[in-house]
Amino acid sequence: MLAYDDHIALALSGGKDSLTLLNILVKLERKFPRSKLTAVCVDEGIEGYRDEALLLASKECKRLGVEQKTVSYKELFGITTDEIVKTDPDKTACSYCGVLRRKAINKAASMVGATKIATAHNLDDEAQTVLLNMLHGDPLRLIRSSPVLRDVRGRFLTRIKPLCDIPEKEIVLYAYLNGLEFQSIACPHGAQALRNDIRAFLNQMDQKHPGTKFTLQRSAERLRELLTKSAPTIGLNDCEKCGDPTPHRYCEACTMLETVAA
Ligand SMILES: [Zn+2]
């Protein structure tokens, strides 16, 4: 996942997963003098939620001496998540927020000159995503959720998920044992209903049949290998609005922002 001279941009939210990964990457980075680590934070504009998490993130960066770059939806896209939800309460905040967050992290990582983006997805997140893709009828999406996502066209920064094989329970344990102060309240806009059901189902399965989440993750890895071989590489255009690479005329984020404005 990492090279000795990588400049890693860690997507830091202030939750247990990303604060744990921050602590681990700091230890690793100290062993490699030519490597660099920057924490990138995104303020989505979720009152009473993200502001608190960002404070915890800043506090930990200061304690560990890690440089931090924060960008906000408001400055990048002119609108906050709270405002998006207000324009149409039927809009699922998660689907918008996910796309905009990915774009914001990409932007912040390019601003600091990073060579890789690390995110703190854990085994539970990954196993849920595998089933979510299947239930959405979109198995090809598996390719995009790879633990190491390299763009052969060189247009996107490589994304890595160093904690993808670590169960959520073990991360919670690490965070508690190391006295990490993390945000524990859930986002007020709620999580995707389907993901919540899958989470409950997988926890139940893993309790009854230990190792289920690992097995699912391994199956996805095998499928990914096959899919990557057979799926054609899609050509990229420059988004006519923002210039970011996209297979379409406009990128996903610009298309979404257009519907919000409409
Ligand atoms: Zn765009």
Q: Please tell me what the overall shape is.
A: globular
Outline the low-pLDDT stretches: none
What's the assembly state of these chains?
single chain
Rg calc = 18 Å
Total helical segments: 11
* Series of secondary-structure elements, N-terminal to C-terminal: EHEHEHHHEHHEEHHHEEH
Widest sheet: strand ordering: 3-2-1-4-6-5
Distance between the termini: 41 Å
Total beta strand runs: 8
Q: Give the biggest beta sheet.
A: 6 strands, mixed
What do the pLDDT scores average to? 92
β-strand percent reads 5-15%
- Ligand types: zinc ion
Written description of the protein model:
It is a single chain. This protein is α/β, with parallel strands linked by helices and 262 residues long. It contains eleven helices and eight strands. It has helices spanning 16-30, 50-64, 73-77, 81-87, 93-111, 123-135, 141-144, 168-177, 193-208, 212-230, 252-261, and strands at 7-11, 36-43, 67-72, 116-118, 148-149, 158-160, 237-238, 245-246. The chain has a six-stranded mixed beta sheet, sandwiched between helices. It has a two-stranded antiparallel sheet with strand order 7-8. Strand 7 (237-238) and strand 8 (245-246) form a beta hairpin. Helix 1 (16-30) packs across helix 8 (168-177). The protein is globular and about 50 Å long. The chain binds zinc ion (ZN). Residues 239, 241-242, 244, 250-251, 253-254 line the site of zinc ion (ZN).
